[in-house]
Design brief:
Length: about 400
C-alpha cells in the first residue's frame, strides 16, 4: 500500500526527491523480476537539469526489442510503428537502445542500482554468528527480532540475509522426551534384545496397548491459530471474542485404553470418571475384565501382550497376573524406557483420533465419548497395519 502511494505521488508530480525515486527503481525492478507488465514512467536522475523519461519494459518486450534491433536493424520509430498496441514511447526506446549499444544487453548490470547498506559482508557474518547455535552452547541462537535490534537493521533485511545470502531455512522444533546418555544406551541394548526375541514375522502377533486422556476442551496450537482482518482495521477495533482463545482451567476429561495388532483391534475402553488408575484398578478392571478377554476373542491363545513401563504396569502383582493369564508378554525389563516412538498407538493412533474428534467443538464428556467411538470405528485396519510396519 505504501509503495502504491509512492507511485501515485510521483505520477501526480509531488514526488521529486532522490531517495523516493531510487525506491521507485527498486519497486519496478522487483516487478520486472516477477514478469509483471508495467506501464509506469520513472525519472532518470543522471541529469538533474534535464530529466529523461524511461519506460519500464517487461522481460518479453526487452527480448523482442533486442532481437529486432540486432537482426533487422529496427530503430525506435520503426518499433513504435510496428507495435502500436504496446504503447511504447520514443524516449524510452531510445534510452533502451542506447544502453544496448553501450553494454551489449538490456538487462540490469551486476552491481547497478542502490548500493547495499544493510546486507553488507560485516552484517552477513554477524547474522551468521547470531542465528546459529554454537556447537558447545546449543539453543543460544537469537531470534530475527533480537538480531535486528542488535545490528540496527530491519527484520526484513535479517530475513533476506538468512535466506538469500546464507542460504539457510527455518525448521520448527518439536517436543520430545529428553534422553540421557544412559537412556540411549539402555534403549539401544533393549531394542537389540527385542529384535532377537521377536523377529519381523512375529510382530504381527504383538498387541500394543496404551492409555490416553482426552479433554472436552480441544488442544491448542497457537502457532496456527490466526485471525485475518482487513488491513485498514486496527486490532483494537476487532471484537475481543475473535482474538481470544479461551480454555477452562479444569476441563472435564475421559481416559481411554485400547489394544491394536495386525490380527485385529479391541474396542475403546473408557475409564470411569474420577477413578484413579492404580495397580489394582489396572489389574482387576482394565486387564482382567476388558483388555485380555477382548484380545483372546481376537487372537485366541497365540499373541504377545505389550505395555509401557508405567508404575501400575510394572508392579509385581501385575507381572504375576500377566504371567498367569497371557501366553507371552514383553516384560518391563525388556521394553525400552522413554520409548513412545516404538508404540504405534502412541505415535500414530491417538493422533488420528484427536484429529477426528476435535474438528468441531465438544460440549461435554458424553459427546466426547460418542465422537471417540465414531472416530475409532472409521479407522481402517490397513492404517493400523501401516503404523505397525
Amino acid at each position: 500500500m505504501q509503495n502504491f502511494d509512492l507511485l501515485q505521488q510521483f505520477l501526480a508530480g509531488r514526488c521529486t526527491d532522490e531517495n523516493s525515486i531510487m525506491c521507485l527503481f527498486d519497486i519496478l525492478d522487483k516487478m520486472r523480476k516477477l514478469g509483471t507488465r508495467t506501464r509506469f514512467v520513472v525519472v532518470d536522475l543522471s541529469s538533474r537539469q534535464q530529466s529523461k523519461f524511461i519506460m519500464v519494459f517487461s522481460k518479453e518486450d526487452r527480448i523482442l526489442i533486442q532481437n529486432l534491433y540486432e537482426f533487422k536493424g529496427y530503430g525506435a520509430k520503426r518499433l513504435i510503428k510496428e507495435f502500436p498496441q504496446k504503447g511504447w514511447q520514443l524516449r524510452g526506446l531510445n534510452y533502451l537502445l542506447r544502453r544496448l549499444r553501450e553494454t551489449g544487453t538490456t538487462d540490469r548490470l551486476p552491481g547497478g542500482g542502490r548500493p547495499r547498506t544493510s546486507r553488507t559482508a560485516e552484517n552477513i557474518a554477524a547474522v551468521n554468528d547470531l542465528v546459529l547455535s554454537q556447537e558447545d552452547a546449543p539453543q543460544t541462537h537469537k531470534t530475527t527480532r533480537q538480531i535486528a535490534r542488535k545490528l540496527a537493521i530491519s527484520r526484513r533485511s535479517v530475513g533476506r540475509i538468512i535466506h538469500e545470502d546464507l542460504q539457510l531455512k527455518c525448521l520448527k522444533k518439536r517436543r520430545a522426551q529428553e534422553l540421557t546418555a544412559k537412556n540411549c544406551e539402555t534403549r539401544l541394548d533393549r531394542s537389540r534384545q527385542l529384535l532377537r526375541k521377536y523377529p519381523s514375522h512375529t510382530v504381527d502377533f504383538i498387541f500394543f496397548t496404551d492409555e490416553k486422556v482426552f479433554t472436552v476442551s480441544p488442544p491448542v496450537n497457537l502457532q496456527n491459530d490466526r485471525v485475518y482482518a482487513p488491513a485498514v482495521i486496527k486490532k483494537r477495533d476487532i471484537v475481543s471474542e475473535r482474538l481470544l482463545r479461551t480454555r477452562s482451567t479444569f476441563s472435564k476429561s475421559v481416559m481411554v485404553s485400547v489394544a491394536v495388532s495386525k490380527l485385529g483391534c479391541t474396542g475403546l475402553i473408557f475409564v470411569e470418571p474420577g477413578v484413579k488408575v492404580n495397580g489394582q484398578y489396572y489389574r482387576d478392571v482394565l486387564l482382567s475384565d476388558q483388555l485380555l478377554p477382548a484380545i483372546r476373542h481376537i487372537a485366541g491363545d497365540v499373541y504377545t501382550f505389550q505395555q509401557d513401563s508405567a508404575p501400575a504396569h510394572r508392579a509385581r502383582e501385575t507381572i504375576e497376573l500377566l504371567q498367569r493369564e497371557t501366553p507371552d508378554f514383553i516384560t518391563p525389563d525388556l521394553w525400552p524406557p522413554n520409548s513412545p516412538d516404538l508404540n504405534p498407538v502412541d505415535y500414530r493412533i491417538w493422533g488420528i483420533l484427536q484429529e477426528c474428534v476435535y474438528r468441531k467443538s465438544v460440549k461435554d464428556v458424553a459427546e466426547l465419548k460418542l465422537r471417540l467411538i465414531e472416530a475409532w470405528s472409521g479407522v481402517k485396519q490397513s492404517v493400523i497395519d501401516q503404523a505397525i510396519d
